[in-house]
TrEMBL record, chains A, B:
Transmembrane segments: none
Disordered: annotated segments: 308-350
Keywords assigned by UniProt, alphabetized: DNA-binding, Transcription, Transcription regulation
Protein known as: Transcriptional regulator, LacI family
Species this protein is from: Actinacidiphila yanglinensis
InterPro entries: HTH_LacI (IPR000843), LacI/GalR-like_sensor (IPR046335), Lambda_DNA-bd_dom_sf (IPR010982), Peripla_BP_I (IPR028082)
A Pfam entry, by short name: LacI
SMART domains xref list: HTH_LACI (SM00354)
Length: 350, 350
DNA sequence: GCGATTGTTTGCAACGATGCAAGAGGCAGT
DNA sequence: ACTGCCTCTTGCATCGTTGCAAACAATCGC
């Protein structure tokens, strides 16, 4: 920047003004500086800017596994939404590791990112500081962590209910829920499943919630395989808590020669891209990832602005905090049921 | 850091020495500083360190689309390999946009990352500076960009040849190649396809290379759909240039009632996770992503060290450059053929 | 024609860390 | 006791940028 300043015959500060789009710069000066900028191939040092201004233009996104299609799609949506705001995303893969997740909640990414979007898996409730984190943080999806953290995601109970209601409408009565585990997410989807069955008056003996450790294709496959080898009567539908499980289930059914949807209907959640290409194409609950990403970034922004006091400039003090708005569980984001062949019974029963 | 220094009764510099693991610090001092560090909850500011030391501990990874399973898997591998080295990965999604890719080659990520791993899609050959980039850069996979850039990836010609040889061994003779496009990658896989057919003495009239714009499920589906509706004789095998295309092809075959592998065998490249769960499970060429990630980071490291002169410290000058080693096309990384049902003909022809 | 207002440019210090080199203390050798 | 050579610790300047506020110039109202 000093070089550019000399080359253009102005002060360093003026160059900074031009670069950062300060209003009060004469057109003549701006043009001259701009020319020098181009000529010398100036590139802004984002580190230095971040150090001085306290804002880096980065947002960190932490997800358990990037290879899981849902998280990949989520990441893509966040990256795109961030790009629209001129923000760069720093993707961190926690591997679902408790320790890594704890470090994130403790602020491990704070000074390099203006805010953190965190999709927790193990979600260590005890690991969040009692007073809440001292940096902008938004949770994605459901989790076990403190209620005081802002979060963005669909209403899992409603989503599960919608999926199961669809199966009921197709005439299914012995519906297996696949995916219950220790997570809050799993609890909620099981809850929605139960609500739908209760409301439809399905006899309790027909409920079956299959526990699954991880929501992956592998576990879906193995669990359904085991289910089919069991002695009980065949279910007429499987509600998988996510599409990866459903994909595994479809594979297991296919391998066992069970016809889908004629013998067993299948529904998943997430509507990952591959769900349109399974055998048969998978019915799924599709969250609007763009809305999730957009809203999450908006909430981060609100926090950043509300907490303007800390580390922004040389002088201290700021607004007394707007507190409301982003605090508390925000409104759930929209989702819709995408019906494909895997759940379309030839002749819906009465 | 100043606070910690006061609290421990030492100079700021000594705290820095402790934090960065400098050798000549007495055990007593180290312990005392460490205690203050913990007590005050000190967190290193990576921006400041990066600004002063010239190294940030970040590596940027630029891929076209994170939702494409291959790139997600690649990213995951890179993130893991980087974590082992104490490096954080900054993931950038170019969207395959020419302008974005140009900006990356121009060094848009330089001062925030110590090096860049770049998986180019449009690969603008003209956009790389004639003298080569002035920052550590490693290309992932094949590309059209300058030969002088170090790159890491499998031998695409050999991979394609292997895939096609496998189909030939299964008795297939009328093999369609699916995926030729403008990319270098596509050219090489087509080349391997041709080599295998030539070597096997398959009559030229049986060659068929189907062009495809993007290597996605959608394009694979649409292209095969069109192929099946055509008047020509049915192929007995499809060699898809990647698994996403193969997945689309499988869906199209399934939708048209064509049995796989009995009527048409299918092979893909990449061995993405979902390939083990398709109908039927997909035979594929599996690159070793861990080796790719590891080697790529190693090459970056070599470049970083070789170019130690620029911007490292206050004084100038460094080693006279090792030049060799990372220069020129490095040895191809290993791959293997993973045989699944999609290519297993019931009775291999003579 | 003069102070007030607005518009434009600038100097200085600082963000939080590290490179460099020198200072302080201890110990052995002569 | 003096020198030389360790080990340990420290002060100062600096990375590239922006916050703050002052300086200067031009314009305006009366």
């Amino acid at each position: 920047m000093r070089d550019v300043a000399e080359h253009a015959g102005v002060s360093v500060r003026t160059v900074s003004n031009v670069v950062s789009g300060y209003t009060h710069v004469s057109d003549a000066t701006r043009a001259r500086v701009q020319r020098s900028l181009d000529e010398l191939g100036y590139k802004m040092d984002y580190l230095a800017r971040g150090l001085r201004s306290g804002r880096t233009g980065f947002v960190a996104l932490a997800v358990p596994f990037l290879v899981e299609p849902y998280f990949a799609a989520l990441a893509q949506a966040v990256i795109q939404a961030a790009a629209r705001r001129g923000i760069t995303v720093l993707v961190e893969s926690t591997g679902g590791d408790r320790e890594v997740e704890r470090r994130i909640l403790a602020g491990g990414l704070t000074n390099v990112a203006d805010g953190v979007l965190f999709s927790a898996l193990t979600a260590p409730a005890a690991d969040v500081p009692p007073a809440g984190p001292d940096f902008p943080l938004v949770m994605l999806g459901e989790h076990n962590v403190s209620d005081h953290l802002p979060r963005v995601g669909i209403d899992n109970v409603a989503a599960a209910r919608t999926a199961v209601e669809h199966l009921l409408a197709q005439g299914c009565r012995r519906i297996v829920a696949l995916g219950r585990n220790g997570s809050e997410n799993g609890r909620q989807r099981a809850e929605g499943y139960q609500q739908a069955l209760s409301a439809a008056g399905v006899r309790r003996v027909n409920w079956l919630v299959e526990p699954v450790d991880d929501w992956t294709r592998e576990h879906g496959y193995a669990t359904v395989r085991r289910l089919l080898e069991g002695s009980g009567p065949l279910p007429d539908a499987i509600f998988a808590f996510n599409d990866a499980l459903a994909v595994g289930a479809l594979r297991a059914l296919d391998a066992s020669g069970v016809r889908v949807p004629d013998e067993v209907a299948v529904v998943g959640v997430d509507d990952i891209p591959e769900s349109a290409y399974t055998h048969p194409p998978l019915t799924s609950i599709a969250p609007d990832l763009d809305v999730i990403a957009e809203r999450a970034l908006g909430l981060l922004d609100a926090q950043t602005r509300a907490a303007g006091r800390t580390g922004t400039g040389d002088a201290a003090e700021g607004a007394p905090d707007a507190d409301a708005d982003w605090h508390g569980p925000s409104e759930a984001t929209p989702f819709r049921l995408v019906v494909r062949e895997s759940s379309l019974r030839p002749a819906p029963a009465p």
